[in-house]
Amino acid sequence: MTWSCLWTTGLLLLTVNPKVAVWAGDREAVFIREYTLIRRDHLSEEPPQKPEDLSSRTVRSEEDRDTLWDAWGSWSECSRTCGGGASYSLRRCLSSKTCEGQNIKYRTCSNVDCSPDAGDFRAQQCSAHADVRYQGQLHDWLPVYNDPDDPCSLKCKANDSGLVVELAPKVLDGTRCYTESLDMCISGVCQIVGCDHELGSSVKEDNCGICSGDGSSCRLVRGHYKSQHATGKAEDTVVVIPFKSRHVRLVLKGPDHLYVESKTLQGVRTELMLDQSGQYHLENTTLDYQKLSDKEVLRVTGPLGADFTIKVQFARGADSVVQYIYYQPIIHRWRETDFFPCSVTCGGGYQLTSAECFDLRTGRVVVDQYCHYYPENVKPKPKLQECNMEPCLDSDGYKEIMPYDHYHPLPRWESSPWTTCSSSCGGGIQSRSVTCVEEDMQGNITPTDEWKCHYSPKTAILQPCNTFDCPTWLAQEWSPCTVTCGQGLRYRVVLCIDHRGLHAGGCSPTTKPHIKEECLVTVPCYKSIDTLPVEAKPVWHKQAIELEEEVTVTEEPTFVPGSWQLCSRTCGVGTQRRTVTCQVLLSFSQAVVDLPDDDCEGNRPVAVQPCYNKPCSGGPGHGGEGKDEETTPQGRDLHDWEYEGFTECSESCGGGVQEAVVVCLNKQTRGPADQSRCQSSPPPPQLLQHCNSQPCPPRWKTGEWSSCSATCGVGLMTRTVACTHRPSRDSNYTAVLKDEDCLNPKPNPFQACNRFDCPPMWDARDWGECSQTCGGGVQRRRVSCKQSLADGSILELPDSFCPSPSPANLSLCGRQDCPPQWVTTDWSQCSVSCGNGIQTLQAVCKKQGESGQYRTINPRNCSMMARPIRIRQCSLKLCQNSLKPNPTILTQRKVYIQWRKVKKVQLVIGGYAYLLPWTTVILRCPTQHFRKGHVQWLKDGKPLVNLPHFFIKSQGYLKIQHAHISDTGIYTCTIGQAREHFVLQIVGNKQKLTVPDSWLLESGRQKAKRPVTTSTKESSMELPISLNKYDDIVEHLLKLKGSIHNEKYLADKPYSREKDRVTLEDEVTKSSIPVVLVIDSHKLDELMHNLSEGFRGPQEEPLLKLLSESTNHSLDSAEASTQGLLLYKLNLKTHTSRARKPVIIQRPKKIGTVSQSEIVVDVGVPVLLQKPVASLELKCEALGDPWPTLTWTKNEKVLRYDGRVGQLPSGSLKIQAPGKGDEGLYTCTAKNDLGSTSIYSWLLITNNEVQSCVYSNSTGHTCSERMNSSRSAELCRGQACPLSLIRWQVDAWSPCSATCGSGSQARRVRCMRGPESSSREVESRQCQREGRKPSNTRLCNVLPCARWTTTSWGPCHGRCVGPSLATHHRHVYCQDTNGTKVPSKVCHGLKRPSSLRNCSTDVCALHWHVGPWTQCTATCGQHGFQSRQVTCKHHRTNKTTREHQCMWRPRPPSWQRCNIFPCGRAAECRDSTRYCEKVRQLQLCPLPRFKSRCCFSCKNT
After folding, report:
1. DSSP readout, 872-911?
2. What is d(CA 588, CA 567) in angstroms, rounded to the nearest whole number?
3. Concatenated DSSP letters for 637-693?
4. Are 981 and 909 in contact (CB under 8 A)?
5. What are the average pLDDT values for consecutive 10-residue runs of the chain, which has 1501 residues?
6. Which SS3 state, helix, strand or coil, does residue 231 take?
């Protein structure tokens, strides 16, 4: 046994085939079939070591070289061979110290489905313990799935007793956490796995089963079905769900039962009966079936392995209802093609696009019927655009045909007549050919390509016909039995009934029901011994037997002939006839019924026969029976030639002839005989007569069909069709008339031919342009394998379908020598090292040969070309002796203190800043006489490099994205010899700043780093800027912020009630809370000098005064000015520019006695009146959009106004001469359409000890207790406003323990009693009435440590965005420190590199080229326009290319109106277009629109 790997976590992976031995805690052997994890402490102390294979380690990355880690080792074998497993890689720490990060990383592997007989992986691990005793007994263990508490422990259930036991703390790596999830257990922890099988990926499948899809590849199908028990059927089909459908759910409510029938693609059918609740498997698909008391539920996650037909089996009772829903895949989509070739080569034509059906699975084009199957597949309509607008050259100059002229209509569909129906009844199909045709200016119609007509729907080529039902047999009721006892027969009439209900023929004899069958009468027949049985028959039946010789009608349908009629001739040979009818005798009604001849079997008797009474001559010698009549003289004269009518006329009109028909007749029978019997006498002479002498009307004359235009696929044959008229038969002149003069229908001038699929053939496109115009180049063309189908479509196939070899797609070109040209070198270096100088360029005359090599020739050969400029001016840095003013930095000595969270603040160099964490900082360095782009930045004396969240902009300012504690320090702006500093500190950071090493070296001190004292004198002498100068006073100012604004700073939000956090932040107005407090540093220095004894007691008043003054001039906007004070002023437009809930503006003041005669107090604080006053005004101001309305209540009741108490127009409440009766709780409510908010104030009027409370919707009850006039007001909190003054007090959060990868913060939470100035800590249980205790720990910086990583830039072949400019791309993804790809949201706080940028390419050297305007189509009026050719051409080659490549610039117009002015007086008749001669020739003058434009030409027509 070999040790494969020793894990640092104390676990060992042990592999043995076929089983693995593991020592359990009780020293018994446990065997697991694959592999398991065991604890290291169960093994010997020194297992045999395997020498490390150094070649298996990868090369250390740049990141690993900066750390103490060795390179990552090779990946281990996968924990599973199928079904998704895990593989790991290890690395070792190269230092004796602790290395940061993990020494192991994982990835998924073997992400292929296991075979159906492989079994469940968790079940295999449970069954491995079947031979190990548990509590002295052996058990057959079954897995326990989906444990919500610990999904990665191996919990199994005993099959016999149901006992659930945890057999192992961890399942094997690769085991699924849950049955319906891809998440897998790795090292006992459930790891998230996306549908892309990547660890940590959040990518999910859409409803169509596409990983990270948008749901467009399938469609949702809903429906319901109601059973119909009255039909008498035992079962019925609910719905047929196609192959590959997903998320199927059916619910049946009622007594019926569901079952499933599957049909594979090979036609194999399987039926599945659903008997009881549970899982079923059918065609590699799992079905979850649940049978309840009142309904049945069937769920299938899918995809379905076959077509599933859901059926319902009827039961007795009420009808059932089935509701179903599923997602059906869409595998065929429409795809728009490029523009087809232009319809003409000059003179203005059009070109169209088409749409082809695209198979998403194979990536090939298929026939359109596939896309018509899905209703949501709407076929794109063709697009039309003009093309080839240049005029056509004619013999007499130029002729012009405009694309939108009335005389050049668009192609249209023409259809042939419908064929005969394929079936005479029961539904058949008629077809016709539909062809795209176009008409020229002369009215000639010719067939053209189908794509030209795709702008309009194609007329139908198939239609149903003869949809009425075919005739069917209809059997009438049976007759009574023919006997009264025993066994007999009974009969019925069967008729053939058509769809009109009439008795007619046409039914198949093979399907005719029988008309006779045996019957049994249950009465026994009694007979004597000496006689035979007598059958009881009705009287009419006896009569039928007696007349059997005379009447042949029977009970079976039989042909019954009638009597022969008299001979047609009294002498000679004649004919006689009789009726032959199919009849049947109905025994029960004694009636004879006529039936159609089809109902009778056998041969039909003849109805006509010859007859002969006597010879017509009456002479002797007649007789002699059996003697041939030709042997007698009369027999020889029995036959003779006679005229029998005329042939058809040779012409239908215009005069024709008819010829008399001569036949040999039998003189007696007058019937035709063989001509040989009349040879004894000569035939009569030929007789002719004239006929149809009336003149012929105009008729269609057709020419011969042309040869087919295509040998396969679908071709066309054409012929000429003209309306002609010939005045007389003898005339040689034939006039061609208009089509209207001939009768319709007009013969079709074209028809389809060779409509069968072509074999696959190579399709070679035109050669492209040569890569070199000279000196040897290549040109390419596209060669593809295509097949023309019989429906006119073209199918593109793989090259293997076409015969080899394929045509060449590469050819040599441009073999001629190139003309001489100037070839230049690079510019030389500047002639001076500073100041202004020159650069030179060498130009050599060279010629390029066929091989592409250049050779130098005599410069005289290039004399015809302009020689490039060989000298240019250059300018380097200024010389040292040049006079230039020294650069300076415009600093501002300010102290910035951030009080409220905001996304971004802008500061100026030269001061101090105390900011909240995660604030973006813009630090500007205003300069004079210096380029902003050359500003250099230092941090702690070292050059500042572009870190992920540091950005040095081209404008010279520094941007710190989401500043945190690690960004504290001294930032230095350097321009030349001038430099200024800025100290940045993060609020909550307890660590003091230290002196940078570079400053220590400059001052000559080589000691270790030490904290800098706050003595201003010492720091001003030793350091360029004091570091921790204002830390103490800023810390105290932050504590005093609550006294001014009645709240802690919002960064920590330490509220006494957790549920009030959102309420405080949402409803307390921000107008009184500045974003950043700005104080002049000299004012703060003066204040610090005066407060040398500390900040408590009387020394606190100057601080409060400074704080109030600075609050009135605080920063409340993210924009900062570089001149003067940086004031963030309140912009009321930001509160009203968008819809928002009402907010009441609070201006808190201290709670104390009021002694003025007219009092104005902002609502929200208690009011204590110790003596009478003239009036009291409670001021209430609110903001909101829409503007809110203000209402007042007293003691929660609507306040009634009178002459003494009333509401001012501003919304404030004014009370004249307030008295004892006015005491109470006053509430101001602001309300608009989006919500409401309220704020409260207590009013107390007393001369002794009083209690005043303010009740706020955000802070609870606040009480002010006044014991006497000398004591200050004390606040308390509680439900009944107690005097105990108990509250929760929280300290600020500590700095986060980690900058990324999940850290923690802590704070101190205490229960305090007493006023703020003299409070003391008490037991926590005394604050239980004040709400839940605030938390003292929280997580921070939970995002993993990651960075953006990019690939190299791709080729420059994106879309053109300018002249010679295109775009190219690269991939940008988020990667952790281990090199593993993680979701992009992990790098959300970092600046994402650009994935797109411009690049230079000669392909985009394109421009619009416009030609000259054509002559206007009209001299006046409103219909004149002219056109010009607009093409996209290459600058260098001047070759035309596709227009979409020039779309980065607006396309110039290709046509415009012209000569738009009146044509003169209304009575003046003149032509306004030069096409009027054509209008007159085509006889278009009767149409109003042509007559108005061609008045002069049409006036005589």
Report:
1. EEEE-SPPTTS--PPPEE----EEEEE-S--SEEEEESSS
2. 39
3. TSEEEEEEEEPPPS-SSS-EEEEEEEEEEETTT--B--GGGGTTSPPPPP-EEEE--
4. yes
5. 34 32 34 33 38 50 67 88 88 82 88 80 88 86 89 91 88 88 89 88 86 83 86 85 90 91 86 89 90 91 89 85 91 83 76 80 79 78 78 49 45 88 89 86 78 80 89 85 83 81 78 84 64 39 36 78 83 80 78 84 85 58 38 55 80 82 79 82 78 85 89 85 82 84 87 82 89 84 86 80 86 84 83 79 82 80 76 73 73 88 90 91 89 86 79 87 89 89 88 77 52 41 71 80 44 35 38 73 79 57 61 43 33 46 71 61 83 87 86 88 85 88 89 87 67 37 36 36 66 85 85 81 81 83 81 81 81 83 79 86 82 80 76 83 76 81 65 75 76 80 72
6. helix
Strands 894-898 and 912-915: what pairing?
A: parallel
Residue 1456's beta-bridge partner residues?
Answer: 1426
| Structural element, H or E, at residue 475 | strand 472-475
Burial class (CB in 10 A: 0-12, 13-18, 19+), 1262: buried
Q: List the structure tokens of 331.
A: 């595998």
Instruction: Identify whether the C-beta of residue 918 lies closer than 8 Å to the C-beta of residue 962.
Output: yes
Which residues, 6+ apart, have CB-to-CB distance to 416 below 8 Å? 432, 433, 434, 435, 748, 751
25 Rama sector, left if φ>0, alpha if ψ -120 to 50, beta otherwise: alpha
Largest CA distance in the chain: 180
Q: CA 430, 436, 438, 444 torsion: positive or negative?
A: negative
Residues 6 or more apart whose CB falls under 8 angstroms from that of 448 comprise 411, 436, 437, 438
Beta strand 713-718 with 721-725 is unpaired
- In whole angstroms, give the CA distance from residue 90 to residue 101: 12
Q: Are 1263 and 1253 in contact (CB under 8 A)?
A: yes
- For residue 1244 the two structure tokens come to 């107390």
Secondary structure letter of residue 775 according to DSSP: S
Q: Which two tokens stand for residue 337?
A: 């093609």
**Structure tokens that stand for 1405 in this block:** 């050297």
Q: Tokens 């072949």 belong to which residue?
A: 1357
Beta strand 1396-1400 pairing with 1372-1376: unpaired
Which amino acid, 663?
V
908 bridge partner residues: 924
DSSP state of 1115: B
Cα Rg of the chain, angstroms: 54
Place of tokens 């009741």: 1197
Q: Is 1090 helix (H, G, I), strand (E, B) or coil?
A: helix
- The C-alpha atoms of residue 259 and residue 271 are separated, in whole angstroms, by 8
1100: enclosing H helix or E strand: helix 1100-1112
DSSP assignment, residue 457? P
Amino acid of residue 1353: W
Sequential DSSP letters for 108-133: EE--SPPPGGG--HHHHHHHTTTTS-
Which residue bears the tokens 């922890």? 189
Residue 1157 per-residue DSSP state: S
Classify residue 1433 by its DSSP letter.
E
- Strands (E) in 264-331, as ranges, are 269-273, 278-282, 285-291, 295-300, 307-313, 321-329
Residue 695: cis peptide before it, omega within 30 degrees of 0: no
Where residue 1278 falls (left for φ over 0; alpha for ψ -120 to 50; beta otherwise) is left
The CA distance from 35 to 16, in Å, is 7
Q: In a 3-state reduction of DSSP, which class is residue 289? A: strand
Q: Is the Cβ–Cβ distance between 1277 and 1262 less than 8 Å?
A: yes
CA-CA distance, 668 to 614, in Å (whole number)?
Answer: 10
How far, rounded to the nearest angstrom, does the alpha carbon of residue 1264 sit from its chain's CA centroid? 63
Region for 802 from its dihedrals, namely left if φ exceeds 0, alpha if ψ lies in -120 to 50, beta otherwise: beta
In one letter, which amino acid is 901? K
